[in-house]
Amino acid sequence: MSASACNSPYCNQGWGELLSHLSPYGYANFGIAFGLGFSVVGAAWGIWLTGSSLVGAAVKAPRIRSKNLISVIFCEATAIYGVIMAIILANKIKKPETEGSYLPDNWDYNGMYFAGYGMFSAGLSVGLTNIASGVSVGIAGSSCAIADAQDASLFVKILIVEIFASALGIFGIIVGIIESNACTFPIAAMDN
């Protein structure tokens, strides 16, 4: 440790200390933020992929503009999954009944950290799944627009692939709900 390093007890000595001293409420709120934020990123990425191909293919075949908007709607569904999960997780955060800076000695710290970590993992898994879902729906929607511009009979066939790609987001939200089911923040001290 160099002479210019902080020797105060209030200095963070690294990422391990920072992550181990983060409040469970912080982990829970980061889980909500990651779930919502990554879901919106996945939807935006998918809309970008689908929309650019849709606009380009509509130059050759203007008839595809309206019916290929279903691809954009599938992409937007990934953002809606993130909003749904954020609402579910936000309703699970409860503040303690006692006011003050310190909690009683018989507080259920294990339950509190379990709830925080569980909500963080639920939000992160939903968010990352929705990034993958948004990108896969975007790629399938892009292919659907280009194929439909060439041959109208291919639209329904590729749309089925797009529906399966959208199912990834549904699986992600199901996993997130299962992960967060046991996450309940304690609001009062345990009985002795």
Task: Describe this entry's structure for a reader.
- This protein has 192 residues and is mainly α.
- It is 71% helix and 0% strand.
- It has six helices and no strands.
- The protein has helices spanning 15-20, 24-60, 64-67, 69-90, 109-150, 155-180.
- The model has no long low-confidence stretch (mean pLDDT 88).
Helix content: over 70%
Number of distinct helices: 6
Shape summary: elongated
Number of strands: 0
Q: What is the subunit organization of this protein?
A: single chain
Q: What structural category do the secondary elements indicate? A: mainly alpha
From the structure above, extract its key features.
192 residues, mainly alpha, elongated
Compact summary:
With 192 residues, the protein is an all-alpha fold. It contains six helices and no strands. The relative contact order is 0.20.
Summarize the topology.
Elements (H helix, E strand, L loop, with lengths): L14 H6 L3 H37 L3 H4 L1 H22 L18 H42 L4 H26 L12
